[in-house]
Automatic annotation (TrEMBL):
InterPro entries named among the record's database cross-references: ADH-like_C, ADH-like_N, ADH_Zn_CS, ER, GroES-like_sf, NAD(P)-bd_dom_sf
Pfam families per record: ADH_N, ADH_zinc_N
This protein's record includes keyword Transcription: no
Protein name: alcohol dehydrogenase
Domain of life assignment: Bacteria
Protein family per UniProt: Belongs to the zinc-containing alcohol dehydrogenase family.
Entry EC number(s): 1.1.1.1
PANTHER family, sorted: ALCOHOL DEHYDROGENASE 1-RELATED (PTHR42940), VACUOLAR PROTEIN SORTING-ASSOCIATED PROTEIN 11 (PTHR42940:SF8)
Amino acid sequence: MKAVIVPDVKAAWEVRERPVPEPGPGEVLVRVHACGICGTDLWMAHGVLSFREFPLLMGHEGVGEVVALGAGVTERKVGDRVGLPMMQKRCGACDFCREEHPNSFVTAGNCASPTLTGVNVDGALAEYAVADVGGTVLLPDGISYEDAAPTVCAGYTTWAGIRRAGARPGARVAVVGVGGIGHFAIQFAKAAGYHVIAVTRPGKHALARELGAADVVTDGAALKEIGGADVVLHTSSSHAAAIDAMTGLRPWGKLVLMGLAEDEMILPALPLTTHSYQVIGSAHNGLEYLAEALDIVARGQVKPMVELFPLERVNDAYQRAAAGEVRFKAVVTF
């Protein structure tokens, strides 16, 4: 099979020949049709995050068709269309796993030996991938592979954060940043019936309105001026932007952190206490939220913005994604 290999830190991504993997007991073999490039992939390719030695075969936004079953698999059948999210399998034996938590990023971060697709085991940036059957999710009818791929991580992250916020019907929800996660957040929040406010730079104001934002502002002061927000969804690569947006957070409001950023985060202690704010960390909160997100996309209520790259142009996809030039998700097709 052809597979995308990252030979070293910040090296060009290459297409190489690899043996087709065989599914072991409890695993499925998936013929990959599309795989998105996530910001986490870029951090691993650049050495910011390190889970195993180079060369790497990454990809945790893979979608495709089950073509073979390992021994004992009954939950899937050949021909099933599935997604391959990052959290594939917990070890099941450590102290954390004995508490029987569902697959989520919390499990990924606390299990003694998790299996993480495209992170500590080979991923879906290849023509074929194997995964534990419990680390797959069925794709609904009506969703294309190209739309499903970014939903498996970026869309999943976004919808799980909105659900975790638990805002009342009709609440005012501010989305900080309009990018790979933010463009999902505006659409998902609108689909959920919230009054959506985008907080972004002037160059993206028109796009934010096209995506469904009822109001668009540039900072927290402007957010406060138009009535504030009950929930602030942080989707950008800057914690400072989230802290600034808290200026417009209403009493008893919630700040939901779902964007990855490297800058330090210093919370405003007095407003946090006097306004009884909640700061919530959120990523992948359980596969039921991924299933919900896929259904919403399949119904046409959310449309991922993707740029498609055939396998032969995967290094172009990497370079454009790393430079922030993709609007908004790079998806490699096989």
